[in-house]
Amino acid sequence: MRLLAHNMFSCNIKGVMNGFPLRLEVEKFVEKEVDFSVEFLRNIFPKIEWKALVNAARSMGYSQLPDAADSSMLNSDDFLKKFHHALLELDLEEGVLICLETDRHFLVNKGIPRSLH
């Protein structure tokens, strides 16, 4: 599961007021090379919850993203490469997504989150 997908998931259990972001507990992740597209990164940037991406990347041991980011940074090749790597190339293979509100655990097995119980 790429961090792009993680950034879009939330806990949808009945009664949950704020099921985003889900905390990651990483057992295994892999890095998969993905074609680099500046256009894609610039288009997806406004849709990304930055703090959630930074925390998820750090849970995988990747600490190259700045704590905060704004659209002016999209002109930096260095920033774009780091953003691309975190968003698209870090892939959670095995682990758990945890709802911070309910402490509900959703297993990730072979890169697929199991959100139904």
UniProtKB/TrEMBL annotation:
- Gene Ontology biological-process entries: maturation of LSU-rRNA; maturation of SSU-rRNA; positive regulation of rRNA processing
List the GO cellular component terms.
Answer: cytoplasm; nucleus; tRNA (m2G10) methyltransferase complex
Task: Read off the Pfam families from this record.
Answer: Trm112p
The molecular function GO annotations come to:
protein heterodimerization activity; tRNA methyltransferase activator activity
Against InterPro entries, the record matches this protein to: Trm112 (IPR039127), Trm112-like (IPR005651)
User: What family does the entry list?
Assistant: Belongs to the TRM112 family.
The entry describes its oligomerization and partners as: Interacts with TRM9.
Give the protein name, as stated in the record.
Answer: Multifunctional methyltransferase subunit TRM112-like protein At1g22270
What is the native source organism of this protein? Nelumbo nucifera
* Gene from which this protein is expressed: LOC104606495
